[in-house]
Structures are given as structure tokens and as C-alpha cells.
Amino acid sequence: MVNQGYVDVFADFKKTQGFDVSVIALSDSELDVNTVQDYITQYYNDDPMLEYVLLIGDVDGFSEIPSYYYGPENDVTDQKYTHLSGDDFIPDVFIGRISVDSAYELAVIMLKTIAYVREPLAYNQDWLDRALIVAGNYSNTPPIPITPKWTSYWLRDELIDYGYSSVDTVFYPPIQQGAPYITEIIDNGVGIVNYRGWGDANGWHYPEFHADDVTGLNNGWLTPVFTSYVCNSNDFANNVDPCFSEAILRGGTTTNPKGGVAFIGPSDLHTSTKYNNVINASMYDAMINHGVVELGPALMAGQSGLIKEFPNQNEPGEAQEFYFHVYNILGDPSLQVYLDTPDVFSFTSNNVSSSDGYVNIRVLSSSGAPVENAVIAIMNGNQLLSKGITTRDGVYANNIRVDNITELSVYANKGGFIQGHHSVDIQENNNQILQFKGLTLLSNGGHSVASFGSYTSLMLNIKNKSSSISTAFEASLNFNEGIYPSSLTVSVPDIAGQDSVLVAVDDIFIVGNGNYNHNALAQMTDQNGSELFNICLNIEPMSLEIKFANDDASPSTTINPMIQINNYSAANYSGSKIVLSSLSDGVQVVHNGQQDLIADIDPFSNEHYQTDYSVDIAAVSYGSTLTFLIELTQSDSVFFHQEIELQIDPQNENVPTSPSEYGYWAYDDLDSGFEQKPSFEWIELDPSYGGSQGVEYLLDDDDHVNINIPFQVQYHGELYSEMTISSNGW
Predict the structure, then answer these.
(1) CA-based nearest residue to 411, from 426, 400, 421
(2) pLDDT per residue over 263-280, tens digit each?
(3) Hey, which of 51, 195, 268, 386 would disulfide with 75, CB 3.0 to 4.6 Å?
């Protein structure tokens, strides 16, 4: 298939999204899971920045890519490929599969994906702010579940509150023959299709919409993302071939596509309502309320809901492990789901000169606001020349080698935006005989990236383009901000014609002044003050998370605080001084008078540091939150600061539980010394244990009963006279 060129075209497209892409073609002798696993594991070990894996091919037949099988029912799963570090079931990379039985089907899916990212509104301006929710309350044995529709009503309300213009629903009951309704709604255009109910590899049964019904769709390039939280709907190794998810993904032709652009669902035939509900709700909560819109992370957020809601289902074979295996993605796992109609980028750029290749791109939203953290990819044909993220001012800058290049293609990417494209012409500067060819970083400790709060030295590569010698001179280098000293003199030696030299810039300090602008711009001028080059020093963006690691904080005690620092970047912050101060009443921070704590914070590290402070906590209440300021300094310059909180939680069962956000405290009969302590008296109702006057409610899976309360109860400010008991947590 690589020879067909489809994979290479798709790889080039992913480069425009800022990805470094490697294509691995397997031979017939390598078609087993161990070989595929070895490729992925080795790549991850060589480059821990690996984020996404995309498998292309079905589990058998044309372009075979094998998969794992999990559990007693041999459920097909690609998730085991992602278990690269440790012995847990949490993915270390995100994985998806484009399951195809022909090269033509591959072309269809890749064209769908590219069009979804680049031109989603080409045929309809409004379809992405509409959604379809399908649900069925059905079981072949009593009791009949009710929460598939409840979950779906919740999602409908969430999407409408988010800003969707319409959210159509097709529910069973009353509708069983759902295909005509579902087909019409999808054909009119919806960005999301969500299902909860009853199904298998053929598709959804209540209401009915099967793989065979995909051929009846006529939605063209309006290809939604399908999320199907129902048994077996994504069993891409099933004898039903194509299964429902494969039919959705492969639907249509290269000129008249149909179906969807991606599909999430489980392969197992006997998933449980209560767990599917949680995955459904948690995934959409992450997308709608927390901006997690790439499919891989969004699915993981959904699965992680089980860790929160069912913390005790953590043994081998239990719910957490099971659902982390059987839910898989068909399609590109890095696809960013459009929630509502996406925004569009506008671009401004400088005049790029051939003498320095300095590019300064600014991206704005449709309202003219700067777009921070957009991923910029600068391409020459299919070659990725430069990539990075924009500052809070919406700027990405860098020096690019532009020899023999006449035009650059600039792409901007961010969730909630259509991929933007901008062309920049290279202006030939024939009046300048010197050319800046790039810089080499010589940071303290030999680190490969420039970091805030660190000293670094630079080697500037300067070429003489002419055929005659360029005589030596003293040049000035002036930085715009964030560098000390901001101005310095560098010596440029004689340079023979067509030759290059390295010019040293020694011991500059990268100041973290709070702005954290990761593009430091310097202008080099000659001895006459004439501009030579614009030089951009890219500084690794700050990505630190600091929190207390103490679990012994109690009222009226003194602790020696330990902090945990997570560094999520390639930056190295060696020799950093940690400074702690209090921002809350009821606590005093005392320096122990010993030598300051100097921390070496390595790239991509997670370390604990024992500070040289004591924290005296007054007689504050349990449940109190004490706020501190932590600063990291270098050479008495603060390059990072963050407020961190210390929670005063109960240390044993003899104190009340901390208050909720509403303000409720929880007291039990073991909370000695508190006047709110209740008296405990057990009244037995179960006749098996000598009780009487009780009513037994036999609740099966997803069952519930409403019970009248003999008196009104006030809870969170509202009065209740009825309560619902449910078997699955609702």
C-alpha cells in the first residue's frame, strides 16, 4: 500500500499538523503481534515523545495488521500495543486503526479525514452545530434498563448548553425501525452521532440501524464522528465483515463518501449498562467541559471515569482493566472532534528574507483575538522545516534554512479551529553578502534546548555568499526582551568567499520574567548600525506542575513540607533554588536557616524534594485549604512561580469528613470530642437476621425503585419527599 502512495499522502498531511511521522511497512513474515509490538516498543524507547500509533489494515486478508485478543471471550483489542511502560493497563500512547480490505477503501477513509480537518464547511456551513443521539431501553430479559435514555437526555442537554443549534433524538421506545429516521438526520448533516442501547457487530438493534443501512446514507462530505457505547459494535475481527464500525468508516467512494470519519466502541458482546454509561458521560464531559477533543485522549478520559466511579473494580479482569481493553478507535486517533461550528484562523507574517530565513507568524481568530497554543507547521512541499506553538500573543517565530526555496507553506492547528493555511514568499536579498545559516545551542550541562532561568551560549553560523573575502568587524546583538545582557558585542572574523564561520555568543541568561515568551528575538547589526540579520532563539515552553506531597498536615502541627515537581517538557532546570512563602492566614512558613534547597529538575521528570522550611499550622478546621506561593529562582531571578494548596484532611476515622463544596460536614459515631457526633443505633429489617417491618426490593442490573419518604428531607437547599434507589449508581 505504501507503493500506492495513499499512506505517504496521509503522512504528509499529518506533518502539516505538526507531527513527526514515521511509516513502517511490514513484510509478510512480520504479520504477528510480537513483531508489531517490538516495532512500537522500540520506537517508544528511542523516542518517549511518541504520542500516536495508527495501524492500517484489517486483522486478516488485504493489508493484514494483527491484533491482540483479550479475556475469556477473545475480544479483539489494539490497546495492548499501548502498554509500553509499567505493568498497568493505562495506555502510554494512543492508538487507532484504519481497517480496510482494499487500497480503494483506504483512499476513501484518508480523504474523509483530510477533508474533515481542512474543509469541513465546504458543502454546508451549519452541520457541525447539529448532533444526533440514538438510544434504546431494551433487554431480552427483565428488568428493562432505563439509563441508556437517561444518559442520552443528559448528553442532549449538555450539547444544547454548549451551543448546538439542534440535537435530534431517535429513541426506543417508541421507535424500533430507526433506519429511516437516522438516515434522514445524518444526510441532513450532524457532527456527532452517539448511541447507547442494545446491539452487536451488525449494528444497533433498538432502534434498528445496521451495517447494511450505511449504503443507504447520502451524507457526502458531512461525515460525523460516531461514538457507540454498546456491545460488540466495534468488533473488527468479527465474522460479520464489515462489522458495523467498519461499514461506517469505509462507507462511500472517493467522490461521494458516506458514513463517518471515525468510530469509537467496544468489541465485547456482553458489556454492562452501568459501565458504558460512565464511559459515555466521562468522555463527553472531557470534550465539552475540559477541551479534550482529540479522539485518543477523549476515549482515555471516558475509560478513566471508571477509575473514579468504580475504584474497587481494579483487579485483573474487573471493570477497569476490561473496558480499557475492549474499547478501541477506528480512524485517526489524533483526530480533533469539532464541537459546534469551528472557528477560522487569519494570518499575518513578516517579509521573509533569504539572508536569515527569519519567519514571524501571527495567528488570530475570526474576531481578531490572538490564538495561544496553536500548533504551527512550516512546510516546503512534503518536508517539515519547522514546528512549534504560538505564544499568548499568537506568535510563532524561527529561523529557517531557505536555500533554493521560493515559498513556504504555513499551517496552523488547534482544537475548535479549521486547519489554517498561509503561503509566505521568500524575498531574495542580493544586497547582503552575509547569510545567517542557523545557531547551535551550548547550554550549561550540554542540554539540547534553551530553558528559562538558565545560562546558555550560542554559536552563530554565518556564511559569505560572495566570491571575495568578507573582512572582520564588530557586530552588535540586541535582544528584544527576556535575555540578559540585552545588548552585547560579538566579533565576526574574516570570512573567505563561499565559506562559513561560527561566531560565539557566550553566557547569556534567559530570564523568566513572568511573560514566558518562548521566542526571544535578536537583531544583529554591523559596525555602521546597518541591519544584518534577525535571529530567533526558541526557548522551551514552561510546563511545570508543583504540588505538596505531604499526607501528615493536621491542625496545630508543624510539618516539613515535601513537594513534587512534574516537568512535562524537554527543559532542564539545574541548580534551581526553591522558595516557599504563605498566602493564607493560620499558617507560618519558617526557613530552617540551613543552606537553600537547590533542585536539579531533569527533562520529563517526576521527583520529590524535601524543602528546607518548616510550616507551622494553627488550629484551623479540618477541610481547610492553605495556599502557598512557590518560586523557582536562578541567580536571584525568579523564573517560575505557582500557587499551591495544602489540604488539611482528617488523618484518622475519629474526626469528621471535610466539608463538601456546599458546606456539609459528615459526622459519624466514631468522631469523639465533637458535639455533632451522632448516636448509633442499628434497626434490623431483614427477617433473616431477626428483623421485621422491612420491604425487600430485588434490583437487577440497571434497575431502580422510587420510595416515598415519611417526612421531608432538605438536601443542598431543596426539600425532598421521595428518593430513588438504583442498582448502578444513578
Answers:
(1) 421
(2) 999 999 999 999 999 999
(3) 268
Using DSSP's 3-state secondary structure scheme, residue 172 falls into strand
Confidence of residue 386 (pLDDT cuts 50, 70, 90): very high
Given a cut of 90, is residue 579 above it in pLDDT? yes
> At residue 103, what are phi and psi to the nearest 5 degrees?
-65, -30
Work out the number of other CB atoms within 10 angstroms of the CB of residue 596.
Answer: 12
Residue 39 amino acid letter? Y
Running DSSP on this structure, what letter comes out for residue 486?
S
Strand bridging mode 454-464 / 434-443? antiparallel
The three cell numbers of residue 280 are 459515555
pLDDT at 97: 98
Tell me the per-residue pLDDT of 190-232, one tens digit each, with 9 for 90 and over: 999 999 999 999 999 999 999 999 999 999 999 999 999 999 9
Beta bridge partner(s), residue 614: 590
Q: How far apart are alpha carbons 499 and 224 in whole angstroms?
A: 56
**Residues in CB range of 188: below 8 A, 6 or more apart:** 127, 130
Residue 3 pLDDT grade (very low, low, confident, very high; cuts 50, 70, 90): very low
What are the phi and psi torsion angles at 564 (to 5°)? -110, 130
* 100 neighbors 250 (Cβ within 8 angstroms): yes
Domains of the chain with bracketed CATH: 2-330 (3.40.50.1460), 346-425 (2.60.40.10), 434-538 (2.60.40.10), 544-647 (2.60.40.10), 687-726 (no CATH)
Give the whole-angstrom CA distance, residue 662 versus residue 650: 18
Q: State how far the Cα of 654 lies from the Cα of 673, in Å rounded to an integer.
A: 9
Diameter of the chain measured on Cα atoms: 108
Q: Which residue has the cell 536579498?
A: 429
Q: Per the confidence metrics, is the pTM higher than 0.70?
A: yes
Which of 141, 159, 315, 312 lies closest to 224, judged by CA? 159
Cell of 469: 573575502
Name the phi and psi angles at 213, rounded to 5. -75, -15
* CA angle (607, 610, 616) in 5-degree steps: 135
Q: What is the pLDDT of residue 517?
A: 74
Q: Are 280 and 194 in contact (CB under 8 A)?
A: yes
Instruction: Say which residue the cell 471535610 belongs to.
Output: 658
Compute, in degrees rounded to 10, the torsion defined by CA atoms 364, 366, 372, 377.
Answer: -60
pLDDT score of 352 more than 90:
yes
- Whether the CB-CB separation of 252 and 290 falls below 8 Å is answered with no
Q: Is 10 exposed, middle or buried (0-12, 13-18, 19+ CB in 10 A)?
A: buried
The phi and psi torsions of 388 (rounded to 5 degrees) equal 175, -175
pLDDT in tens, 490-514: 999 999 999 999 999 998 998 865 5
- Cβ count within 10 A of residue 80: 17
Distance (Å, rounded) from C-alpha 526 to C-alpha 531? 7
- Which residues have CB under 8 Å from 545's CB, separation 6+? 565, 566, 568
